[in-house]
Amino acid sequence: MRVAFQGEPGAYSETAALEHFGPGTVTVPCHAFDDVFATVEAGEADCGLAPIENSLAGSIHRNYDLLLQHSLSIVGEHYLRIRHCLIAHPGVGLAEIRRVISHPQALAQCERYLRSLPGVESAAAYDTAGAVKLAREQGDRSVAAIASRRAAEVYGMAGRSRRRRPDELHTLPGHRAPTPHACRRRQDLHRLHAPQRPRLAVQSAERVCAARN
């Protein structure tokens, strides 16, 4: 099973794909949501996965538009709890961080925490996992990223440090799973799309996954 998703390896969408389809899944990174849908429609992936609902940020309107523009249908859902981490180079302490990069939505969700860090500025990146990749490639030890713990593992950042100190990798507060009532509303909304489309999709509270027949 080949599953397309937006972002770099280690992105939350990739985590949702692996959880839903199992460890044998082959993931296909795409630069943008448009590319996810186009990749599936072209037959280059069996499924595609992208966000459609977020319990904090609400609906991802771009992906609703893409569902209307492409011959893909929603056929299921997968709920993924988002747990942001502050990821630095191995051996870097919290007091050494001067800049934090991530996707704008992740920065907004962690705004209160970031404001509590003295002398730290934030900057937008195209993807959470991509921010970790960028921080590693640039090699600036004063730059950290907000992303998943898995992203730290993928790129060999703080999570892989054998002598990691407690302040090198922080789970950030303020993220909660959707309530059962919210889940039911989303399920009803998703089913509205499925009957009219010739292809299928797997839905997630944080991610939507589309698949070809």
CATH architecture annotation name of the largest domain: 3-Layer(aba) Sandwich
As a percent range, the share of strand residues is: 15-25%
Largest sheet: 6 strands, mixed
Topology as a string of helices (H) and strands (E): EHEHEEEHEEEHHEHEHEHEE
Would you tell me which CATH topology of the largest domain applies?
D-Maltodextrin-Binding Protein, domain 2
Structural class per helix/strand content? alpha/beta
Number of helices: 8
Characterise this structure.
- The protein has a six-stranded mixed sheet, with helices on both faces. Strands 9-8-10-7-11 form a five-stranded mixed sheet. It has a two-stranded antiparallel sheet with strand order 4-5.
- It is built from eight helices and 13 strands.
- It has two domains: 2-81 and 177-211, D-Maltodextrin-Binding Protein, domain 2; 85-171, 3-Layer(aba) Sandwich (D-Maltodextrin-Binding Protein, domain 2).
- It has 213 residues and is of the alpha/beta class.
- A hairpin with a 3-residue loop joins strand 12 (200-204) and strand 13 (208-211).
- The model is unreliable at 159-213 (pLDDT under 50).
- It is elongated, with a radius of gyration of 18 Å.
- The two termini are 13 Å apart.
